Amino acid sequence: MPDSPTADGVIDCGDGVRRCSWACSTPDYHSYHDLEWGFPVSADMRLFEKLSLEGFQAGLSWLTILRKREAFREAFAGFDYERVARFDSRDVERLLANADIVRHRGKIEAVINNAKRAVELVQAEGSIARYVWGFEPTSPDRTPDALGRLPATTPESVALAKDLKRRGWRFVGPTTIYAFMQAMGLVNDHRQGCDVRAAVTKARNRFERP
């Protein structure tokens, strides 16, 4: 059985691994937390995938999206934004009929729109990675409040969201963008005492910024 969370938001999930407390709510989160969340990413398709899935998460839990991730990948051509940018109204109807993903017209159309904007972004900036990593905070760490909570946005996530919206992207609010930054390693929000924190710190130190 999992222990109770410590004051710094870390918990032993019952398997001897101390994780950030959110990762103990279900075993589905264990590998995602231990092997993905917070490790730096520079692959454009993975960055586009995460931006897309964070948009689908709006109003839902990440667990819902995580459990459907493989279906999303199949439905959206592996999140190859150049291919998705060519999706048309027939693809929208196809996706709306796919019970394995979140069937929300606005979010589906936003991904297709954002794929077109991603093509433009790469043409202008060289890569999605080069662009988003330009918003990396100077300090990767944040201080929890008196209740141990981390802020849901930062000045950098606000700035990135604002610039994406200026470029025509949709479903990219500051909270959504901060969740993206956390997951893709632009910050290290693994709590002090989390067994994965040191590995993420090491990966970030070795990571070559685009």
- Helical amount: 40-55%
Indicate the low-confidence ranges by residue numbers: none
Taking all residues together, what is the mean pLDDT?
Answer: 92
Alpha-beta classification? mainly alpha
Number of helices: 11
**What percent of residues are in strands?**
under 5%
The best one-word shape is: globular
Q: In this structure, how is the largest beta sheet organized?
A: 2 strands, antiparallel
- Number of beta strands: 2
Strand order of the largest sheet: 1-2
**How do the SSEs run, as a string of H and E?**
EEHHHHHHHHHHH
Secondary-structure topology with pairs:
Elements: E1 10-12, E2 18-20, H1 28-35, H2 44-57, H3 62-67, H4 69-75, H5 81-84, H6 89-96, H7 105-125, H8 128-133, H9 155-166, H10 174-183, H11 197-206
Antiparallel strand pairs: 1-2
Structure characterization notes:
Helix 2 (44-57) packs antiparallel against helix 7 (105-125) and helix 9 packs across helix 10 (174-183). The protein has 11 helices and 2 strands; from the N terminus they run E-E-H-H-H-H-H-H-H-H-H-H-H. Strand 1 (10-12) and strand 2 (18-20) form a beta hairpin. 50% of the residues lie in helices and 3% in strands. The model has no long low-confidence stretch (mean pLDDT 92). A two-stranded antiparallel sheet has the order 1-2. It is mainly α and 210 residues long.
